[in-house]
Amino acid sequence: MHHNYQHCPSDQALTQASDLAVVAAAADRSAAPHNNKPEKAPATLHLSHSPEGTIKMWEQKKAASSSAKDGAAASLYIHPSQSVGRDVREVSWVDAASVVENAVAASAGLPHVLTEQKPDLLESTVKELDIDLLGKPAANLWIVVEDYPESEPILAKDAAYRVRGGQDSASDLLKFGARTADAIAAADPSAWPIVISSEKSLAGHGPAPRVFVGPQDVKVTSSRRLPADMKRTIQEIADTTYTDMEGHAAEKFGKRAKPLSSHISADAQLMGELEFSTSLLTAVDTQRILNPVNPKPLPTFLSMTFSGLRSLREHYGEDSKQYRSGTAMTRAAVDEIVKTFVDMHEGEAVVQVLTVPPSISAALFRRASSATTTSACPTSVVDCQSTFSNCSNHGTCTQRNVTASQQCYLCTCSTKWTDDNGKAVAGFSGPVIWTGSSCQYQDISVPFHILFWTTVALIIVTM
């Protein structure tokens, strides 16, 4: 599948960006390693607060019915944001996915995570982020919380967006974390983005390391990418997560944890995922503080999906004291995780949190689960070819060890220029990167990187 990325700035905009250093700095940044700190761009190019009304507001989808507008909505939070105090904006699931993609692409210097370019949403997202987009690439944290009450903010500020519309289009946003982690891992063999989720999640299998947190244990896949120190830390936290769970919960959450029992699977699911996630980030941050001279590598893309509230709601009901306590515990844990991640990266981080209310959560995740193929584990080449559409004719099915005891046939993408029928593309030679579970996405070429960062630079200098 080929993606056409086109954005033609006006003559006036090009004149405003005539300083070629802007484009060069932005283009260089997209290729800069995360552990190298490039020179800062001139102060005049730093992202600054825009006057009220300068952010371009896109219209709500006219096709949305009044019942859809009045019904439950997911909430999307972005930190750091310039929209604090502004009215919450309404977006569709498709546009919300574009906002999230653009935030990662622009802040981390990773245009190849985009599945589609939408210049208007890129502009709005760039103006939304309150960071220096031409400086050091930012780390990114993506969090999804299932079955979280719509009426309760999960962060200390209001949501930037309310996400509504046809639920059939929600899959891309719900699976954003795993898909993006795999795209990063596929494009850079040295990268180790981490996906943390429950066993019920949509994380599936892929080249990025996965950590599945259940009510009784923690399972890790594709761990060979992880640095030795990180692998050891994950194992140490996993070994202690299920020891005295109620004591750990009481210490961390106080009286809020009292209604929950570690002997009940639904309770243990929530306590386990909150304990593991908060403890892991605290341990990594502590190691950073204790080793300032010889710092350990830090995760630069981290995806977390919390399913514990769904387990509590299904077991006890939405009006139960267990669900209410779990909600308070989850809110406290997410707040701690966000602060720790931002501190860990010394403020150069972007955090996006999506909360999905109970009234639509079950239907959304059920549809997304039925639509996904990344969770499949074909046991033969024939099954793999059927499941993954013959790797879109851009790769071959090969056997991989997804866990210590499980082998699957998954797509190994090629590096040849081929069309969707597997035929060589005339006039194109040299390597190309195909990515995605079915090798369905083509990595963005250097010309698009330059075009993307030219667009970002134009947006910034005209703010």
UniProtKB/TrEMBL annotation:
Residues 25-46 are annotated as: Disordered. Transmembrane segments: none annotated. This is DUF3844 domain-containing protein. GO terms for cellular component: endoplasmic reticulum. Residues 256-357 form the Renin receptor N-terminal domain. Signal peptide: none annotated. Residues 377-462 form the Vacuolar sorting protein Vps3844 C-terminal domain. Pfam families: RENR_N (PF25294), Vps3844_C (PF12955). InterPro entries: Archenteron_Induction-Rel, RENR_N, Vps3844_C.
